[in-house]
Amino acid sequence: MQRIHRLRANIQQCYLGHDAVVDKVIVCLLGRGHLLIEDVPGVGKTTLASALARSFDVSLARIQLTPDMLPADVLGVTVWDNQQNEFRFKAGPIFANIVLADEINRTTPRTQSALLEAMAEGQVSIDGMTRKLIEPFLVIATQNPHEFEGTYFLPESQLDRFLMRINLGYPAPEEEARILATDPTRTQLADLKPVMTAEELVQLQDECRSIEIDPTLADYIVSIAHATREHEHLQIGVSPRGSLALLAAAKATAMIHGRDYVVPDDITTNVQDVFAHRCISNSYLHDADRDTVPNVIREILETLPSPV
Hints:
The structure is a single chain. By secondary structure, the protein is of the alpha/beta class. The protein folds into two domains: about 1-210, Rossmann fold (3-Layer(aba) Sandwich), CATH 3.40.50; about 210-308, Orthogonal Bundle (Helicase, Ruva Protein, domain 3). It is about 45% helix and about 15% strand. It is built from 15 helices and 13 strands. It has helices at about 1-10, 20-30, 45-55, 70-75, 110, 115-120, 155-160, 175-180, 185, 200-210, 215-230, 240-255, 265-270, 270-275, 285-305; strands at about 35-40, 55, 60-65, 75-80, 85-90, 100, 125, 130, 140-145, 165, 195, 235, 280. A five-stranded parallel sheet has the order 3-6-9-1-10. It has a two-stranded parallel ribbon with strand order 2-11. Strands 4-5 form a two-stranded antiparallel ribbon. Helix 2 (about 20-30) crosses helix 12 (about 240-255) and helix 11 crosses helix 12. It is globular.
């Protein structure tokens, strides 16, 4: 718990927004998942992601995604070495421990797809060879709302690779006053020091997997997922990958609260962030999904009895 408190305090030196958002980021990290942060520009998406990345003594790569980027700009490319008289692979930024994919929905689906294998299997296949990525490996992606010009919709297969999708929201007045007084992005982010090594992070992630969950709570997760597949307003519900993601998030939530077992609240507090981006409403319109899917999930939680 001390390591988690130290990590939270370190992030909060630079990100002065809601405390609950910081906890969600840590939950995603401990659950060995990838994180998608969506909100309007200027509310601290990149600051939050950068503060998390700089809190670990690991390799960090930042990719500013643009419409003209190619998959090779993410994965790497094989080039001819005149001195060695052979082809050599020049690794791309995906081979870092923590990859910050900034404004992921400003690049084309072709380039977005370069992340799929890495995020799902921890490896990339290039020129007929499969190269493993080093642990820990985490993709933190930010995206702007789709109403903004120059954005692309993320394919459903890409969205499903993210354990959680979260929104930051605007800071409270007192938090915004602190931002004006300190401007932490300019004054503190560059000097932020790591508080955890890669080995310590992997150890925490392993401990998170060993958190106990009662079979009735596992059945509760299955019931929620199954209800999304049968709901009349949803065309596509949550897959078993989504159920596994909710299990990982519930265990991580229990861990940051100092427990070695899962309680029902650990599940219900994460359902929206883990399930909403995995469901598609009958209208098959992304904008409609923003309203329909969260409402359906709330209805399901109200209908299904929670285990005691």
